[in-house]
């Protein structure tokens, strides 16, 4: 049986989803499942996004890779913020 037929999606898509599920499980276990933007619990991996506390675009590209600059947010909270008010607040 072909992998795509068996998984119902491309292998790379399946691996990406699996990695997100693993990451979400780990952030729940260590208590990092609190949204950086709104402060509420992220309850589903589908709602979770990785966020840079200090925007790296048009800034220092090292911030992209800096794990101390990473938090987690609800996807919608991260999308609405768009990096604008965090920069203005000096976060």
Provide structural commentary.
- It is a single chain.
- Helices cover 45% and strands 11% of the residues.
- It starts with a helix and ends with a helix.
- The longest helix is centred in the N-terminal third of the chain and has 19 residues, at 11-29.
- The protein has a single domain, classed as Orthogonal Bundle (DNA Binding (I), subunit A), CATH 1.10.30.
- Residues 85-91 have low confidence and may be disordered.
- The protein is mostly helical.
Strand content: 5-15%
Give the tally of β-strands: 2
Task: Give the termini distance in whole angstroms.
Answer: 50 Å
CATH architecture: Orthogonal Bundle
Tally of domains: 1
Following the backbone from N to C, one meets helices and strands in this order, namely HHEHEHH
Radius of gyration: 15 Å
Percent in helix: 40-55%
Question: Quick summary of this structure?
Answer:
With 91 residues, the protein is mainly alpha-helical.
List keywords for this structure.
91 residues, mainly alpha, DNA Binding (I), subunit A, disordered C terminus
